[in-house]
Write a structure and sequence with these properties.
Two copies of one chain form a homodimer. Chain A has about 300 residues and is an alpha/beta fold. The first copy, chain A, has one domain: Ribokinase (UDP-N-acetylmuramoyl-L-alanine:D-glutamate ligase, 3-Layer(aba) Sandwich). Helix content of chain A is about 35%, strand content about 25%. The first copy, chain A, has ten helices and 13 strands. In chain A, helix 1 packs across helix 8 and helix 8 runs antiparallel to helix 9. The longest helix of chain A has 19 residues. Chain A is globular. At the A-B interface, helix 7, strand 13, helix 9 and helix 10 of A face helix 7, strand 13, helix 9 and helix 10 of B.
């Protein structure tokens, strides 16, 4: 089934304890697309500046991402700069330059408006709602968000949550959104806000999926060496949505398998800088690691 | 198969953000025994002082714990006092009084020396080795330890590890023992120290088991409300060993099921103060929650 993502393309400056790299291709929609495209074609709507490197769009095209919905605006591409501490759990944002993303007014090309599977990557809930308005009758819409929007645009976010099927949150966001520390209770409260499904991401501690007909908890894939965790959450969402869209149904079994593929995708992501490792991975690689993860988590 | 535990019986003073209780029955061997006894009879070797309440031994007897190996020494029972912060992850030890445990010289009654399954709960590696010396030919010996012994008795601990089949460690202990931050690599390094199996406990983030023929990772049971996490690690070990000893084999399937039962036992433990909740749980309760956990973690 057709899969559409609306989000950011960016250039990131990333500092780990081992290395620092400037202008690394990034953004929520980038990580999502590269992961999801291992499963099936992906349609991408985003905005970039005049400085966006043509080769970076080609990379996406070669991966099977339709970039005809990428708008080229006057100005510079979105930029994010951050630094990780040695334990990876602490991330310091050094700078965020919205640049062309500040006035992003998503325009979904008519050919993409009939998309069945829709991922609204992190953006202001107003931008996400504008994108959602333009899609005819999506069968499965999942939204991501961040602490900033929970804080400064809570009413708009709550309005959006009533219109979507699923939401992905990390532990901190779930607690902030619900005011509940216990993640199980927080997830239940989120379900009361509208979505049928909530995916709660806990980074190196795994993730769980909760819905009226499914409750599935999964540890992370045991990665031998983390190089750069940037984009792992969006990559998880990409692996999950890519698999589910390919399967074309929302059976609990499909959603569970999607969680495993999301976990596999995230593990490949963190093994390289930016998408260095992820972009080399084929569906075959995903399947090999899926089988390994399955053997580790099956009781 | 017969199951023997050597460890502490204690009176704990526990402070959470919600409550404070003094002289709560506790100790590593207490939590282990109460959990394991849900599966089969347990033999207990420990030392208590003259102040130990007879009713506390009766409680164990009624649960199916043979306390004939509990030595009554002159002096006071081991006491520990600690405080938890609101997130449960930070525990402050306020005071440890070894009391009669300081000169504990374990004497295994002759009737218990042929035990097949042996758990050496946290104690100095020298005390643990003395206990191990007195058991004829255990089929499966598992040892627990703590940061203190890793720091001040490393050679003695390493010598003991070469003599046992399994070791349970929490994440901090695994990192301290191996000098490796990555838990997967840390577990591999521990296996190189002698044991055939290592169980790595990550508290609310679950646990994993690694051995030459098995690698199994499991999230924690999603507890709705934590009341007191004291003893959860020993309770996990008790549920694990109790099930495995009852099954009487070390097949990977058995060890995996043991991990689930350990997780279930720990979840009951943290739902009450001390053993308040745990001690009320029958094998039937364990099985009900086992099935629930199984449904949550099965892909």
């Amino acid at each position: 089934m057709s899969l559409l993502v609306i989000g950011t393309l960016a250039y990131d400056t990333i500092q780990t304890t081992a290395a620092k790299r400037a202008d690394v291709l990034g953004g929520s929609a980038l990580y999502f697309s590269v992961a999801a495209a291992a499963f099936q074609p992906v349609q991408l709507v985003a905005v970039v500046g005049r400085d966006f490197r043509p080769g970076d769009l080609q990379l996406l095209e070669q991966r099977g991402v339709d970039t005809s919905g990428v708008e080229h605006a006057d100005g510079r591409t979105f930029r994010w700069s951050g630094r990780y501490e040695a334990d990876w759990n602490t991330r310091h944002t050094i700078e965020t330059q919205l640049n062309v993303f500040e006035k992003f007014d998503p325009k979904i090309p008519s050919a993409m408006r009939s998309s069945q599977y829709l991922f609204l990557a992190n953006a202001s809930p107003l931008v996400q709602a504008k994108a959602l308005d333009q899609v005819d009758h999506p069968a499965f819409t999942v939204v991501d968000t961040m602490n900033l929007w929970i804080e400064i645009m809570r009413p708009e976010l709550l309005a959006l949550l009533r219109r979507v099927d699923g939401v992905v949150l990390n532990d901190e966001e779930a607690r902030m959104l619900t005011g509940e520390r216990n993640l199980l209770k927080a997830a239940s409260l989120v379900l009361g806000m509208g979505p049928r499904y909530v995916i709660l991401k806990k980074g190196e501690h795994g993730a769980f999926l909760m819905g009226s007909d499914v409750h599935f908890s999964l540890p992370a894939y045991p990665v031998g060496m983390v190089v750069d965790p940037t984009g792992a959450g969006d990559t998880f969402a990409g692996g999950f949505m890519g698999y589910v869209a390919r399967a074309g149904n929302l059976e609990p079994k499909t959603l569970r398998k999607g969680m495993l593929y999301g976990t596999v995708a995230a593990s490949y992501c963190v093994e390289g800088f930016g998408i260095d490792s992820l972009k080399e991975r084929t569906r075959r690689d995903f399947d090999v690691r899926y089988d390994e993860l399955l053997s580790i988590v099956t009781p």
